[in-house]
Amino acid sequence: MKNSPLNFVHLCENAFLSQDGKLNLIGIFRTLRAAKFPLLHPRIAVVTNLKIKKTTQLKIQILKTEAREVIAKFNVTLNVPPNEKNERETGFIADFANTKFEKSGNYQVEIWVDEKLERTVPFEFLEIKPMKK
Questions:
Q1: Domain assignment of residue 131, yes or no
Q2: Residue 13 is part of which domain span?
Q3: What share of the chain in percent tops pLDDT 90?
Q4: How far apart are the C-alpha atoms of 42 and 24, rounded to whole Å?
Q5: CATH number at residue 60
Q6: Would you say residue 133 lies in a domain?
Q7: What's the total number of domains in the chain?
Q8: Which pLDDT belongs to residue 2?
Q9: What average pLDDT does this structure show over 31-43?
Q10: Residue 82 pLDDT more than 90?
């Protein structure tokens, strides 16, 4: 989006900062697979990087696309020191643990910054059918 504060958003299985501050992303995806539904997915990490000048509200939610049903959400306030005058980049990792997915299909992650929808990231869950003998 034009003039968006978001530099990037990634969906992955795991994300963390190394001891020297490097961002590590493991298992970036747009498609997930499961043998049966409903299921509890053990971990989805939503990694964001954005430019902020002031204290900012960040909301991240996972939705079932067709129903617009929110199945998980995360809200956080990103604080900027009061004497900070310049725009700064900040990263955030939202971990969603044991998120329940009722059925296969299309899902999306929405990223809201200060009550404005800044990015929608689609992904899908496919059901793996057993092979017939």
A1: no
A2: 6-126
A3: 77
A4: 18
A5: 2.60.40.2550
A6: no
A7: 1
A8: 62
A9: 95
A10: no
